[in-house]
């Protein structure tokens, strides 16, 4: 094997290990959060402030499984987001659409299906935004989701 292929293999291995570490951290955070909720429910916690701090510091695993964006009018768009169902995810979804200040939100609907949230909303581009098209809107929405801590799952 030449040096380049060894280095390439090493880089891939390190990336895989980083992804596994991230998944494990998320899983641990979820387990700790469920333990805190159980203790709170059973009333076995002696220090509620400590529990609240521990609960607030746990990262929320927010993953976008699917994003569909359709242009339905000249300045109107329909968006459908499918993501995992976890505590705090719905709030982050709505913070995302509220952060889209170049658009008027016409309607939104949040439903659950199995272990997923499905958020659909319709938006109109504000008059001061001249060059808004479907690819640009997808970039705006993707950026807003990333700012709220969402990750995008890609099928391989």
Q: Mind telling me the CATH class of the largest domain?
A: Alpha Beta
Helix/strand order: HHEEHEEHE
Q: Count the domains.
A: 2
Alpha-beta classification: alpha+beta
From the spread of the alpha carbons, the general shape counts as flat
The count of β-strands is: 5
Count helical runs: 4
Short description:
The chain is α+β, with helices and mostly antiparallel strands and 156 residues long. It contains 4 helices and 5 strands; from the N terminus they run ααββαββαβ. It folds into 2 domains: 1-38; 63-152, ACT domain (Alpha-Beta Plaits, 2-Layer Sandwich).
Q: Could you explain the architecture of this structure?
A:
This protein has four helices and five strands. With about 160 residues, the chain is α+β, with helices and mostly antiparallel strands. It folds into two domains: about 40 residues; about 90 residues, ACT domain (Alpha-Beta Plaits), CATH 3.30.70. Helix 1 packs antiparallel against helix 2 and helix 3 crosses helix 4. The longest helix is centred in the N-terminal third of the chain and has 40 residues. The radius of gyration is 20 Å and the shape is flat. The two termini are about 25 Å apart.
